[in-house]
Amino acid sequence: MTAPRPRVVIADGVPMSGVIAEADEPKAVIVAIHGGGTTAAYFDCPGHPELSLLRLGAALGYTVIAIDRPGHGSSAPYPEAVQTPEQRVDLAYGAVERILGERSRGAGLFLLGHSGGCELATRMAADDRGAALLGLELGGTGRRYHDVAKEIMKAAAVKERPPGTRELLWEPMRLYPPDILRGATNSSTSPPYERDVAVNWPHRYFPELAPAVRVPVRFTIGEHDRVYRGDDHNLAEIAQMFSQASRFTSNRFPEAGHNLSLGLNAADYHRTVFAFVDECAAAGGASRSAEDR
């Protein structure tokens, strides 16, 4: 395995950045997509290797790529290239292919999206290319906002990071290492399209895209997530949206807030993701064997 290292590649003429941690003979490749107000560093938090999705993944035999979403990182100076969902999906797929190059993909690609990154991850899975994916993990998102989040999201439509955003995303603060709350993974830039995503994702884009996803899906919400509702009714509603997925499972992760990959029990969450990837890879292998007979 290798330590995480940054990469910048050119996809459709746009520089796309990310971080990769490689396994020598990967079981699969996990592509992690961060949410708003951060970068790929979300999945390899500076000063906290014990929380890192990339480091744990490589140690367990996976190659993990965390990309900077289009409009973040190296692509931030190219707003005209990230305006449409189609552009962003093409850039993300292109970046992954160029970062991997001739490297082994193992059993295939698996997508993990967090919060605002779930929009891009779901679009990628709903795309024609998504049929070849092993599966999809969506964390820290949902169909309906909590009441306090609704008011903040309304304000976010006209003002970037309105008052109360920090508390919404990070409380209860006891669930995170204290220094993370000082912004080790924060990004100062936010592309214009993110306001539209924040306002329209739960009630418009999410229910439109979910039925087009055909691969296995796992949905995770933190027990103490203050942004999205994670009660039984809402989880059942989300399950119904993924009507064409070959498999759907959901869970409320205990003692976790909105930022699942930065909490004190992030490694436990990540291990459940890798276990799901293993299940998807095994199911995919069994399906291919049946087709060959």
UniProtKB/TrEMBL annotation:
Gene3D superfamilies: alpha/beta hydrolase (3.40.50.1820)
GO molecular function: catalytic activity
One Pfam match: Abhydrolase_6
Domain of life: Bacteria
Secretion signal span: none
Start and end residues of each AB hydrolase-1 domain: 30-261
Name of protein: Thioesterase
Organism encoding this protein: Mycobacterium gordonae
Organismal lineage: Bacteria, Bacillati, Actinomycetota, Actinomycetes, Mycobacteriales
